[in-house]
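Quick start: read one record
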Amino acid sequence: MTECEKPAEIPVGALKRSAARVIRSFAPPLPVFCDSCAFPGGSGDLSEELRRLYLVLGDQLDPGSPVFEAFDPARDALWMAEVAEEATHVWSHKARIALYLSAMRHYARAQRENGRTVHYRRLGEHQAGSLSEALAADLEALRPQRVILVEPGDWRVREQLHQVLNSAGLDWEELPDPHFLVSLGEFAEWAQGRREFRLEHFYRHFRKRLGVLMDGDQPAGGRWNFDADNRGSFDARGPGLLPAPIRFEPDSITAEVLQLVQTRWPDHPGELEAFDWPVTPAQAQAALDDFISHRLLAFGRYQDALWSGEPWLYHARLSSSLNLKLIDPRTVIAAAIDAWEQGRAPIEAVEGFVRQILGWREYVRGLYWQRMPDYLEDNALGADEPLPSIYWTGDTPMRCLADALQQTLRLGYAHHIQRLMVTGLFALLLGVRPRELHEWYLAVYVDAVEWVELPNTIGMSQYADGGFMASKPYSASGKYIQRMGNYCAGCAFDPAEATGPKACPYTTLYWDFLIRHEQRFARHPRTALQWKHLARMSAGKRQAIEQQAEQLRASLRAQT
């Protein structure tokens, strides 16, 4: 057996122009394993006492993880379990459940084929309802000398596993997750002593440190940030003929999982007929290649655009593969930068894409672990409305919200502006309880894992953390949605109107939001202009807006 090799340390301070070369230099290689394997319905036969048991969670499916460098197929084994709690602790979308189960089963098969013993507990083949129960039972039965796990991504799961491992009285070790470019320790070091946390500061620091998109000590292209070039919208002709993203037809493993999910959780939201998500590393790589070849070119300019009936536009569809660890972020970033260096994509598109991965993705993970578990209860704006039932049905006359919700319920997907500035914006303006919205996002999107979803919802979308993540609330009227897409054309509501029968609910609630939070934000340096507009409004107009906003809330409460 040739064991996987530990990646080289990140070349701190490297000043190379090509981040692709820097990233590839510490990307973990794929391992090569011996031929023998055992998998009799879930547990392998070990030739001698079990030395190490490696726990593999459903979002840790990295085939080349260096944490297995000391794995001995004669004495060690992997452990994985499917448990109902992971599908039901929030009311998970059917496609989300299916993606996890299919990817896990494909991973287990690949590990068996590569000579590793896998103790894999399938739904229906054990009695445990939770991950902790399943692990406790197997630790008692297997009695490994040592348990190895990679740090879980979710606080809830980490706490459960730590409790089980401590109660079992076994020797165990938790290793840093090598998937991420910035370790939790490095984030804590960066965060120490800071009065405020801002993405831009984090992003620039680690671009320099990792040598990503750098030209010596200067940013490639002469600017750190090409956001001003990445806010385009389509004209009246729309996006035109879009390149459809690559599809992955279900194989026998996925087909079996789809049937299981439909049978076991028929009342959960979502549909499975269109399921085509990557479930293996090879498929994730194909999805990356497809994005780089066909959509990266226009991703930057149109990353914030909206268009009715077009769920994918120029987006990558890689977040689920990244979050399940089917593909490494180093590989993804390197491919984008290679495209720029070869003249196949402009710098503004590549920088905008890299910012999503090295910027937001790594940043929110660090914030999550800085604040948990208190982050779950944050509600700085005192929002107390229940999540409207329309979020589970998509039944609303608001065309933009209906399209985003119905698409989400059908596919388990919406791009980041649909989430932030359609579904998230409506909840912010309405005053929905942040935790309820968080649990909805965690349930309905196939790429949702708590460490990335919770800060984006509680912090960025709802400003419930009081500015810990974002410096100001992302509040806007219906005019923003009108500017970024075609939803308002043909809608029953007018985004220019705040009161009356044709008033856009977004616009009504926007002005009501300004009224309700005037004292908090009127002197905020980044929001003062919005509240200055409010100051010019007459008392009568304010009262009419407040009354219409309350009628809208009452109507939604009645439906819920």
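The CA atoms of residues 319 and 447 lie 6 Å apart.
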